[in-house]
Amino acid sequence: MQKNNITDLKNGKLLPLMEEFYTIQGEGFHAGKPAYFIRIGGCDVGCNWCDVKLSWNAKDFPPIRADEIIERAVCYPAKAVVVTGGEPSLYNLDYFTKELKKKSIKTFVETSGSHKLTGIWDWICLSPKQQFPPLKEIYSKANELKVIIQDKNDFKWAENNAEMINKNCYLLLQPEWSARQKILPEIIDYVKNNPKWRISLQSHKYMGIP
Prior knowledge:
This protein is α/β, with parallel strands linked by helices.
């Protein structure tokens, strides 16, 4: 890789884009809202149930200009961009989000919090993973805590994380897709007994959209 490209990767002017698409947000607090999704390649968390494992190896996705992504994002009616992955916190997102804000685009990110998060965000969705826990600093910044529930043991993990977030952070439990039929009744009962939590479903999968 040329020296200029290495520099632009470090300063965030180049990003290893896996895919981008305009769709309806399918999960979390903002489910049902339109947004332009940016999926960045590269992840070192390695969830065994990840439904986008192809995103893990950043080398599979040649870096492209952040400005090109922005040019496409502004063409869509919903002035909202969701950055996901992979793991977005692996990259410097200061430049990307700063330029998006100049275009009056709201910025959303979903992160495991496993690395220092950069960027200017209107909304931070923290989705913590047990094998690579979040840095402590992200808890005070999160607007939404979304915990994936695969089995009963994950409820304790969810509560441990809920003890560290700020008082204005929304709490959501989401069934792991492949275990949803078995675990969803457990989540329903748990939320009924612990009403500080809400349920998040991957509604985009039910709708058959990205």
